[in-house]
Design goal:
alpha/beta; 8-stranded parallel β-sheet; 39% helix
C-alpha cells in the first residue's frame, strides 16, 4: 500500500513490556525467563527495549533482579537497552551495567507526582539535575518521561501550557529526549495532535516519544493522531501488558503487535518483523500465567484468509 499523506514513512517502537508490563503482574517472572524473553524480542527488529527499572525492590518487587537481567541479556547490534531509574542511586547502578539509555520519570501534575514519587514536579527537576551530573561523561542517552501529560486521575485536566512549561525545563536541563505519557488512558486524538504539534514546533530537534495506555480503547487512535502530528517514536508493550501501580484505573499500554500491524498495513515501516513478533507474543500467557489483551495475535493479520465454508 502506498501512503497518500506527507507523514513520516518510518517510525521506531520502544518495547516497554519487560519493565512497564511486568511491574504490576501478580507473578514474579524468574530472571532466566525474563532474559530469554528479552533476547527473543531483540531478534524481531525492535530497536529499543526497556528491560527493567533500577528502583527499590520494596517499591517494585517484580523488578528486584534488575542488574542480573541487564547483565544477562545477550547484546545484539542495533538494539539499545534502556532502563528506568528513579534517583541518583538507581542511575549509578544502571551505569555500572553499561546500559544504552536511561529513562527518568516525573509527573506533570502535582498530585500524581506526590502519589507516585513522593515529591513535587519541581523537586523531580532538582533530582534530574543531580542525575545528569552523575551521568554527564557516560555517553548514555538520557530520556525523561512526563507522566499525566494528557490528564491526571486525581486532578483531571492538565493544561497544555503546563506540560510545555515542564518540557522546556527538561530540555534546558540537558535532557536529550522527552516522552509524553498518557498514564491512565485519558487522552483523545484531538488533544494528542494539539500537544504534539505544539511540542514539535517549539523543539523540532528534540527526540519526542509518545506513551499511550489503552484504558479507554483509544490507544491506537491516539498513536495515529501523534504520527499525523509528526511523531516518529512510540512506546508500546507486547500483548498490551502494563499499568502504573500508583495510577488508579490504569490498564495496559497500547499493544506492540497491534501497533506494528496498524502502521505496517498503512505502509509505514516500523522495522519490525511482525510474524516474529507474533511468535513471541504467543508465548506471553505461559510466561505470566494469564491471557493478554492483544488482538492481532488472536485474530491474525488482516491479510489472513479463510477457506470458503462448505455449502
Amino acid at each position: 500500500m502506498k501512503l497518500v499523506t506527507p507523514c513520516a514513512t518510518k517510525i521506531e517502537i520502544n518495547e516497554v513490556a519487560p519493565r512497564d508490563g511486568l511491574q504490576i503482574e501478580a507473578r514474579f517472572v524468574p530472571t532466566e525467563e525474563k532474559i530469554r524473553w528479552i533476547d527473543a524480542l531483540s531478534t524481531t527488529g525492535l530497536r529499543r527495549i526497556e528491560a527493567t527499572s533500577f528502583t527499590s525492590p520494596k517499591a517494585i518487587p517484580n523488578l528486584r533482579d534488575a542488574a542480573d537481567v541487564v547483565t544477562g541479556i545477550q547484546g545484539r547490534e542495533g538494539v539499545d537497552i534502556t532502563v528506568l531509574v528513579p534517583n541518583v542511586k538507581g542511575t549509578e547502578r544502571a551505569l555500572d551495567c553499561q546500559v544504552d539509555e536511561i529513562n527518568l520519570v516525573m509527573s506533570a501534575s502535582n498530585s500524581h507526582s506526590l502519589a507516585n514519587l513522593r515529591m513535587t514536579p519541581e523537586q523531580s527537576l532538582e533530582q534530574f539535575a543531580a542525575i545528569l551530573e552523575v551521568s554527564k561523561d557516560s555517553g548514555v542517552f538520557i530520556n525523561a518521561s512526563l507522566s499525566t501529560s494528557f490528564g491526571c486521575p486525581f486532578e483531571g485536566e492538565v493544561p497544555e501550557a503546563r506540560v510545555l512549561e515542564l518540557v522546556e525545563k527538561l530540555i534546558d536541563l540537558g535532557i536529550q529526549g522527552v516522552t509524553l505519557c498518557d498514564t491512565t488512558g485519558m487522552a483523545n486524538p484531538a488533544q494528542v495532535k494539539s500537544l504534539c504539534e505544539a511540542a514539535l514546533e517549539r523543539w523540532p530537534e528534540t527526540s519526542f516519544t509518545l506513551h499511550f495506555h489503552n484504558t479507554r480503547g483509544m490507544g491506537l487512535a491516539n498513536a495515529l493522531a501523534a504520527w499525523q502530528a509528526g511523531i516518529t517514536r512510540f512506546d508500546a508493550s507486547l500483548g498490551g501488558l502494563g499499568g502504573c501501580p500508583f495510577a488508579p484505573g490504569a490498564t495496559g499500554n497500547v499493544c506492540t503487535e497491534d501497533l506494528v500491524h496498524m502502521f505496517e498495513a498503512m505502509g509505514v515501516d516500523t522495522g519490525v518483523d511482525l510474524d516474529a513478533l507474533l511468535e513471541v507474543a504467543a508465548t506471553l500467557p505461559d510466561l505470566i500465567g494469564h491471557d493478554v489483551p492483544g488482538q492481532v495475535v488472536k485474530a491474525g493479520k488482516s491479510t489472513r484468509r479463510y477457506a470458503m465454508p462448505e455449502r
